[in-house]
Specification:
The complex is a heterodimer of chains A (245) and B (247). Chain A is built from 7 helices and 9 strands. With 245 residues, chain A is an alpha/beta fold. In chain A, helix 3 crosses helix 4 and helix 4 packs parallel to helix 5. The longest helix of chain A has 17 residues. The chains are: A alpha/beta (245), B mainly alpha (247). At the A-B interface, helix 2 of A face helix 7 and helix 8 of B.
Chain lengths: 245, 247
Amino acid sequence: MSQLIVDIKKKSFSTGADGQELTVLKNISFELSNTEFVCLIGPSGCGKTTLLNIIAGLDDDFDGAISINSGHHATPPSYVFQSPRLLPWRTVLENIQLAINDHDSLPLITHILQQLGLSDNLHSYPNHLSLGMQRRVSLARAFCTPSNLLLMDEPFVSLDQAIARKARELLLSLWREQPRNILFVTHDLDEAYTLADRILFLSNAPTCIIDDIKITLPRAERSENQVSAFKEQLRTNHPALQAFL
Amino acid sequence: MPRSSLLNSTLSLGLLLLIWQLTASTINSPVLPSPILVFNNLLNAIQNGELPRHLGITLYRLTISFFLAMFLGVAIGLILGRHKKLNLFFDSWLIILLNVPALVTIILCYIWFGLVETAAIVAVVINKLPNVIVTIREGARNLDTQLLEMASAYRFGRSSTLFHVILPQLYPYIMASARTGLALIWKIILVVEMLGRSDGMGFQIHLFFQLFDITSILAYTISFIIIIQLIEVAILKPLDQRSQRWK
């Protein structure tokens, strides 16, 4: 059983030379378990990326604790960034192999690349691919790692509507096949609603969690009508979330 | 394209030779021997084994000091470029090293270490090192932090990060300092050999200067130029092309 427990008391940056402190995150605690898909939604600049970086272990300058329980062996979370962040001087295959530190998993890599429609691009260099393809490679890289936690930072943000919808479907089908906890940051409530088991709503900085809402409706039934019904329900039952609607 | 560029350089070199020949025959003095005399001298020097021996020794010194300077320079430049405090502390050292005249370091090395091979190589390395450090430091300051974050998120580890993330980004800086470095080392190594060695190109040229043998000086110079061109065409250019595949 895999589990993520986040308990951040405080995270602040010092600004300028006068040593003033700007608090970005305050009292954020939540858990993910049983291959949950959780969306984090919040206004821009509220420190969502900072939060993900802390969970990923890129930033350890904070008060609190992060615990990632992944059963028998501890693998770090995989991370899909806002931009693809591939090494341009290494091929698609090399990029993935470097990230998973294991050169024996070629069947898995080719299988995942095939699912993402990249089976012909195993030996291409990232600069020879379109941006959409590069994003899919970075998704493949994340799913090829045997990690039980996947962090995603607005991965579909600059794609147009149709392609973004396609990308979300691909993500869900990969996730069903290779289940793991996903923490997905977005600023788009519609996107969060189509993807998540649970949505965490974040406030402006200093950021804390305003609300934690479970979505029980099966994903297949989440049509556009359902989105508006969901929003209507939020409007009446959760007046604090007015800013997100 | 390579064909026309070959034609181009042949024509341009041919013109240079022609000008040389015309000037030499107009002046008609031992101070400027004609290209044919120089060429004959060159063949002679190659046949009697004098030139290959001295050129070989100089090339050997060049190779060792070049790789030592590049290796140390990349390592130190990378460290200084990544650590602001260290860089601030050692910046003045670097400026001093950059500005000590080559002749002074050479003489000091010979005085401190004696007229030995090590002194010669250390002197060349010290002269070349600060230039490499400065260039690499510039590159290390401009490393892509997003890629470094990605490498640490996926736990690349130190050596993977160095070889797959950092060095490929430093590559253009390394090539730039290799090119300028090669030219600089050639120049310094001859002075080093002239002052304290009894073999090598520098020693020979000094000897020819004392004998006023201008033909030999020019013949040796030409052999140099050919070697430099060979290094450029056979090593540096292919390296450049290989590293550009991904662009």
